[in-house]
Amino acid sequence: MVATTTTTTIAAAYFPTFPHSILSPHPPSTRPSLPHPSKPPSSSPISSLSLSLPNKPKPPPIPFSAQILTNPLPQNHATSSDTDGPPTENHFNLLRTSVRYNDVELAKAVHASALKREEPKTTLSNALVSAYLKLGLTTDAVRVFRQCLSCPDVVLYSTMISGLAKSGYELEAVSLFFRMRKTEIEPNEFSFVAILTACNRLLDLELGFQVHSLVVKMGYVCFTYVSNALMGSYSKCGRLDFVLQVFDEMPERDVVSWNTMIATVVKESMYDWAIELFRDMQRVDEFSADRFTLSTVLVACAGGRNWNGGRQVHAHGIRMGFQPTLNVNNALIDFYTKCGSIRDVETLFESMPVKDIITWTEMITAYMDFGLVDLASETFDMMPEKNCVSYNALLAGCCRNGEGMRALGLFCKMVEEGMELDEFTLTIVINACGLSTDMKISEQVHGFVLKCGFGSNSNCIESALIDMCTRCGRMDEAEKMFYQGLDNVSCPINWTSMICGYSRNGKLEEAISLFCNRPSEVVVDEIALATVLGVCGALGYHVFGKQIHCLALKIGLLNDTGIGNTLTSMYCKCGNLEGGIKFFDMMSTHDTVSWNSMMGGHLLHRQGDGALDLWSKMEKAGPQPDEDTLRLVISSYGYTNSNLVEKCRILFLSMRTTYDIEPTPELYAAFVGVLGHWDLLEEAGQLINSMPFEPNATFWRALLDAGRISLNTRIGAMAAKQILALEPLDPSTYVLIANLYSASGRWQCAEKTREEMRKKGFRKIPSRSWIINENKVHSFYTRDERHFQSRDIYSAIDVLILECMKSGYAPDTSFVLQDVEEYQKKDFLYYHSAKLAATYGLLTTKRGEPIRVMKNVAICGDCHTFLKFVSVVVRREIIVRDSSGFHVFSKGQCSCKDYW
User: Fold this and answer.
1) Alpha helices of 816-860 — where are they, by DSSP H?
2) Alpha-carbon radius of gyration of the chain
């Protein structure tokens, strides 16, 4: 005798969208009560369809669905003559089971059984349509639906509309809804939820308005879940105002209503408001937060860097019993990553009883955000399961930490293992290639991306490729992609990439020209604005920089700290130190970069005392100084009115204990510069022996420059020898050495150095000076005759030289590097780029206005002397910014006090 057990009833909650209407042939308001399945009345046909399972299922290969339908009926059930009645609850149970276990054959078997028994189509059709749609059998669901069109009802239509919307057939769902409207069947609350699901996926705001109007007209706005669906539709379309309006007008709210409102606010980055909504929700007694609420509020706390709020939410979750759940714990990891310490994250991770792939991936992201690349890699290796997302997290983390080559190696491993590559993966790898700045590798990666077929079809990848090419020196390819791309006219990312690329490759005028010629529909972002402001600072383009300042104010980016820092730096680099100070004082918040920018501005104007005063204010304000801060502060002691070397020495020796900053070669080089300024070269030499590491080229350059200024050829020769050993291919090193020999009159050694440069194919960076007149950059090189006004310029400079000679100017031919006759040396000196630019400025500016000249290298001593005499002869102020800072020539004196 075979023992049997009755089939377990599947809960109707398995179907969350329509919990009742899908499972029964009648709407909830009219559905009759069914008798309890365990005690059917004698006249009920339910017992005739009761199925039983054997205790020991037969071995292979009978599928689960076949076992259920072929099991013999128990003898105590009704006779076969009773099996021709309507379906029982077991038919619905079987369909629920088929959905739960994704058993297609079981669903089709139930369908076949229903067809064989010639049951009424309206009794089981809703459940069949729902089951087929959930199993992904859209065609079968449509077939059942069409068979029932002779006697359809609102439940069948609603089920079909909902299923189509969730299966990716949103337009078909909308069409079916309007078809239902043309019949005598009126939509109910479930119909509206179904059509709003289609609106969500289509992001069709106009259709959402029409459905909303119909909901109000038919009186279904009082149904909470209909209003929730309306809120979800508006939220997907980014209309916070309509979400708020629906939320405020709801007669009743549930947890979903609050969750939708909070999630919408978080989506709009209004984190403080989201936390306030959560507190309002807690004040309503009948509502208690669920897991989704806590996860969303934790995202708000992380986004707003609200440490106390996040801790309170964490505590609330523990009290409510949500702490062990995965989604809450994953949100907590993200919160502590952004607001806490790595110890908080590790403690939470280790205490989690269950971890999924999202947990492991967020842990990798946390380690990367804290700069712990090795620990992130170890965590990745320990993952029990990896996917494309976890690989992408590790790749992106390597890029954020400047590990471009490491990311490229990981990418090669992904390709070898056959891992899925998506657009995000390729974008990260392209960025990693840009970090490496290796032209050959960039060409290989570029070819791989094109082979994958993503190059011209993705704006994101195309923008990344443009940026990569600019970083790797492939400007021709970047320009070709930019101008021949599909949607570059309206793609702000590509415009920003090209503007940054021009700036990065020294094409400053091209960067400004591209920015000015952008289409009106291209939205200016903070990166493009900061880049153009940096270009204005590099060129000394003060007028255009002020226009960008006005643009930042107009588009609402002036409160951005990064823009503020760049504006401060721009004003200082353009010679307007007062403007930089004024804007710095107006900034609402200052970070470390803000203070660094302002101190750097003081140093550009050789105002060491002003920089040190700013340093005192920064210590009182509280921002933590970084290595750049201390380098600027140390350098400031070289430009003070009095000798403060002792204070500088104390700061240098105490930075490790006071600020937890290890002395670097750059910091040593700054201290050497200060010692050189105050003629303490012997101490600078002794400093070499006390360094805990081998000095790099930066340190030796500082010592070489100090030796050049003090004409100490012994110290200079020692530094030059070390630089050549460290960087034998750097042409600037040979130029420094040649200048040192020439300044001390050792012509033979200077010529030998220049000959060695020629043999190795090195060329010095040409001296370039420029002046901005009528919104145009006018550039000059030594003995340059390409300017359209060169004849007037040369005539004017000859007159100036004669007038200056009358006042005592004598050409200093020691600054001529070529070993030529004396009269030729004078000819070389007379037409240096700085003299040509200053003369052009005298010809084109109004009387009494200062002349502003920019120069890419340090001004030579003869030009420096000449311009002092010019300031007396023409009674004009001449401002020159070279690589060392600003020189303000006025009444025969220079602001640098002849030390640069």
Assistant:
1) 822-830, 833-844
2) 39
